[in-house]
Amino acid sequence: VPMVAPGNVQVHVINSTLAKVHWDPVPLKSVRGHLQGYKVYYWKVQSLSRRSRRHVEKKILTFRGNKTFGMLPGLEPYSSYKLNVRVVNGKGEGPASPDKVFKTPEGVPSSPSFLKITNPTLDSLTLEWGSPTHPNGVLTSYTLKFQPINNTHELGPLVEIRIPANESSLILKNLNYSTRYKFYFNAQTSVGSGSQITEEAVTIMDE
């Protein structure tokens, strides 16, 4: 098997899901056989928005021939990763380079995990929601948009409300009685808005 690990491993993080890794080629003498390529082992150490440490699954990408760089796609935003590089010949892999740590930046969050509308009264509705399963960063706020729908399914004027990220419910007041409303709800990080969920609800006709 090869004797020497690739040196001078460098990681360039391109965006929240993609990184490029560079390394110096090993001396051909140290390969001790036919150079087949380089393998990059990489794994997620932890999510920076959650303290959970689950089973670490190592991923391996093989770059054929005498390449000295490769792309790592499909990374998770706002996470800490480690990687190392090994050279491969027909017999197997050489030793691993020292582990290199890199962090991916924040991305936009997934949609809120649920949106429930309860307690209808003549002029109010209560909204409850769950934070996104994948925040992909630090949540900065939620955005709620809503509008009335009339009997011919035409949409009325759209109202938009910003809600602090630490809230999980809201009572909407001063609504029209016996009216159907459509709601659009999403979360934000400093990078931007995630995908929205929609829901409809009706205020009651009379007490």
UniProtKB/TrEMBL annotation:
- Encoding gene per record: Nrcam_0
* Keyword ATP-binding on entry: no
Q: Which InterPro entries match?
A: FN3_dom (IPR003961), FN3_sf (IPR036116), Ig-like_fold (IPR013783), Neural/epithelial_adhesion (IPR051170)
| Domain Fibronectin type-III: start-end pairs | 5-107, 111-207
Its signal peptide is none
What CDD domains does the annotation carry?
A: FN3 (cd00063)
Q: Which UniProt keywords apply?
A: Disulfide bond, Immunoglobulin domain, Repeat
Cross-referenced PANTHER family:
CTX-RELATED TYPE I TRANSMEMBRANE PROTEIN (PTHR12231), NEURAL CELL ADHESION MOLECULE L1-LIKE PROTEIN (PTHR12231:SF257)
| GO cellular component labels | neuron projection
Q: Which domain of life is it from?
A: Eukaryota
Pfam families in the record: fn3
Q: What is the official name of this protein in its record?
A: NRCAM protein
